[in-house]
Amino acid sequence: MHDQASRTYGCRRRPRANGALALAMMWVSVLAGSLGAAGAHATSLDPDGGGRHAIRRTAPCLSAAARLRVAARLRANVEALRRRGLLPPGRATEPAVARAVAMSWPVVGATGLTAPGVHGIGAFVDHDATYPDHLRDYSCGGRSYDVSSGYNHQGTDIFSWPFSWYRMDRDEIIVLAAAPGTIVGKDDGNYDRSCGFGSTPWNAVYVQHGDGSTAWYGHLKSGSLTTKDVGETVAAGEYLGVVGSSGSSTGPHLHLELYDSADRLVDPYSGPCNDTIGTSWWANQREYYDSAINLIAIHSAPPEFPECPEPEVPNLQDVFAPGDDAYFAAYYRDQRANESSTYTVVNAAGTEVWRWDHSSPAEYYEASYWYWMRRLPTDGVHGKWWYRVTYLGREYEHEFWVGDAPTPTPTGDVTPTPTAGGSVPSSGQGSGLTLVALMGLALAGLIRRHRGRRCVPARAAVHYRAAEM
Ligand SMILES: [Zn+2]
User: Alpha-carbon distance 242 to 163, whole Å?
Assistant: First the structure.
């Protein structure tokens, strides 16, 4: 009933007239190394806006009753698939505790999204059985949640950041299979703009791995699921759906819940307070504080974050006239106190126009952003400028234009054609496919995407695997 409204939702607000061109020119690259010491000494500068982006955790991702219903249905599906010979018979030969899974990261940006990062961690599994407010994650910290009704978080919440609703409307943040396996269940067609606890079911894909363990991918966007049916296999890194907010959810995120071959809950992160596994189930387990910049961007006005589930208004812009006000922003995940960032703006002649520093004032933010307004000089050099941010030894770079902007010329149709199952060409996690190499793909994709195809049906989107750092 709500679904139709949600399908057309993203069409209500049109980006500004120059949005398409601006997005097409938004090249973000991540370059190793530091900014170099040649520049002038930077001074700390208070931002004109920003701060913490709160992730609300007020409801179980899945009620106990819903979890039981899902588990019962999956058991029935598995039995049926075994009878058809699509799954190996029984578990007698399986190890009691599976460890044949080496999971890749399941949340990435889709076609054309060149952001260096797209996610944050909202919650790990809560290993403290008491509640409420008794939290213990795999690393013995408190990055989880429980509620007074008796729920201890049973999965890993990976949220989309920034612009989660805006990007959900554009199918820009997608879920990939973390490990290969057989689809043993699918839920689709449910309302996907939840802002809190509710009894509506979620949209999800359930994949059983070769060792008998199972992954639940929940909260997906309605109508975005892989066209593959129960019983078909998926490869690691294959497209499963778009990150959404279906079911009991306070915003677009993936709830990843795992069970071993004996149907025992598994927390995939190896750590001193997780006794559900021995070795990490991640091929490359991320740091507990996975601090990074997800996006640096320039805006024509401050980005707007309306109340859930209204889509954000990013006000992205990359072409300015001399004398314009430009808002230089950076979007962080896991930003911690005393981690200094250095921001510089370099003009088309290669001259540093501005440089400033900033450190987060809080001990820790799971998601945060900051922006500074700068009036571009009225005699500013025309051409391509650079906005750079250095954070934790990594440099992030974003190009923009002052005065005349060049007309991008794509070099041909380089976007891969999806297969019937919507599979994703695998670049391999951490492979040599860098963001720099993706720029051509990204540019062509963005131009295509923003040339009037404003309201893209979920199934029509073309996905491929973008780098996620
Ligand atoms: Zn969750």
Answer: 14
